[in-house]
Structure to design on (668 residues):
């Protein structure tokens, strides 16, 4: 017979998961993915129109790994008007040898946010010039805040510049980040951001280019992560024609959606012009050849990231429970 | 903020769900599906080789419905050697207007078994001749037992004939069914089954035809449900060339896998030779034109069935809880 499984909530996940551990396992996940060490079929997608929403389902496992993971990330974009969070999510962890349920992580979408933040921070570092003038963040939402915090740390800069279509939101985020110890400012024009920053992360739900190619100076490194579905786009495809290094998290996925596909479709670059971010993180390829290069990372999100974070969460929570149990048990002997 | 959600286990589901209610909502689900009233993208599939296993992920919602459903059905085929059940599963139910988690149904795979049993019973009736001599079941597993019980009731026959590759298993199932009030017998040869039965349900994991076309007599109705993945097959494709009515649960899915695709690929029938089971259940098409027809239903499994059963389960359990709560609350006023 099957038994009940534990459900762990957001507070347990927040306590268990440290940023450095998440960066470490997500880095490992990109490398495994690049080395064909992950089984991850095409993700599922369920779309809603009234009200607008989506549910992305990613699933997979590390070859030889102890678990498999099914991850749901849900967004309903009019929720804030109802006083509800936009995001929700669940991560389900199963035994890869028996199919039995190990745990449900009721992460409310946070594990996806964190693994995406980790990917952005790793990608920002992977192609950054040797001297980072400032980190530019295009976008003002929840992921923009995480990117500012995580990537500024990985790049070793305190200077963050924010641009979004709504200046009030940009100013609010900059103010929020300043209170967290960063030197953050909002700018009115995206050109100002590119004038100040040589590492730029885009994290918006845009469906048309926000970043014109002419604004991108030599020596700039761009990480684009907003285009997680067909129909989304953040970068002018002409930037790809000027780039020396193009990194993708997954070649096929970035040809299906993301930014790379737009440049390929426009005939600006060959469909094999990209290298894998995992190869760069493994030290098998270079993310930047010279200080004057324009470099790009196109991130669309990998099941491998979800497998990595969920595996880490389970290990940490369970070892803590055993530790807790041991202490409690020692207590009774006194 | 998001709140915790309830998890309902198998005992609650068993108590709440009655066979007649499940038949009713699954019938409705087939009709909705045929009338384009269901949003159900292509299901996900995760395969394992060491040990062999699979995880099927179906997801969807009824247009205008209050919930969306993500259903996982997991099978690990060497589990019995370890003293574990082969099947596991979880059904996740979300609010289709906000994306919030309504409940997790820890059904251990039973909701999939039941909705499949309901589909078989409805499909058996949809093309059955007016006088059923006996119900033939090809297969000896868990679903074979459910089919024998559910379809014999829908057909109004007590007579069940079992054939499987392992005669001992066939005999065990026949004995088991006899103890449940059916007149069941096991036969050594599949030809004996076709000699006695004019409604036959196949529910095996076969990867090569078990049912030779020459054995199928005029007036026979066949329901094939075993081929739920690419590479599986139960029927000789030549049966399709002899059939007057071919029903599929989903046209595209049955062209991708199932039985219909083998007949189409072999050039025995046109790729548009099928009608939808939902149309027949809605009374918009006939499942049998004459008593001498050979008729076939090809079932591959629909997310609509999962949505239907999960919605029913939630409604029944929650109305019961409210009822229980009301009683408890009345109690405190005494």
């Amino acid at each position: 017979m099957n038994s009940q499984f534990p459900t762990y909530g957001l507070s347990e996940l927040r306590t268990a998961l440290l940023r450095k551990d998440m960066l470490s396992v997500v880095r490992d996940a990109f490398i495994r993915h690049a080395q064909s060490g992950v089984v991850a079929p095409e993700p599922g997608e369920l779309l809603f129109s009234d009200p607008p929403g989506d549910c992305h389902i990613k699933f997979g496992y590390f070859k030889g790994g102890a678990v498999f993971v099914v991850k749901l990330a849900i967004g309903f974009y009019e929720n804030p008007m109802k006083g509800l969070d936009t995001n929700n999510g669940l991560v389900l962890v199963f035994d890869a040898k028996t199919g039995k349920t190990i745990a449900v992580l009721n992460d409310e979408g946070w594990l996806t946010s964190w693994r995406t933040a980790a990917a952005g921070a790793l990608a920002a570092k992977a192609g950054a010039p040797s001297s980072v003038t400032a980190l530019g963040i295009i976008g003002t939402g929840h992921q923009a805040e995480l990117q500012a915090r995580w990537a500024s740390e990985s790049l070793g800069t305190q200077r963050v510049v924010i641009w979004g279509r709504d200046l009030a939101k940009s100013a609010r985020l900059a103010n929020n980040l300043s209170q967290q110890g960063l030197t953050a400012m909002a700018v009115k024009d995206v050109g100002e951001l590119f004038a100040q920053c040589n590492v730029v992360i885009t994290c918006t739900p845009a469906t048309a280019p926000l970043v014109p190619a002419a604004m991108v100076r030599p020596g700039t490194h761009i990480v684009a992560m907003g285009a997680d579905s067909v129909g989304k786009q953040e970068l002018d495809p002409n930037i790809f024609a000027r780039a020396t290094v193009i990194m993708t998290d997954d070649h096929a996925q970035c040809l299906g959606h993301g930014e790379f596909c737009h440049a390929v479709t426009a005939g600006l670059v060959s469909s094999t012009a990209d290298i894998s971010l995992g190869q760069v993180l493994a030290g098998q390829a270079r993310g930047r050849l010279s200080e004057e290069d324009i470099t790009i990372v196109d991130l669309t999100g990998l099941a491998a990231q979800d497998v990595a974070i969920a595996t880490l969460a389970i290990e940490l929570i369970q070892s803590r429970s055993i530790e807790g149990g041991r202490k409690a048990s020692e207590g009774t002997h006194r």
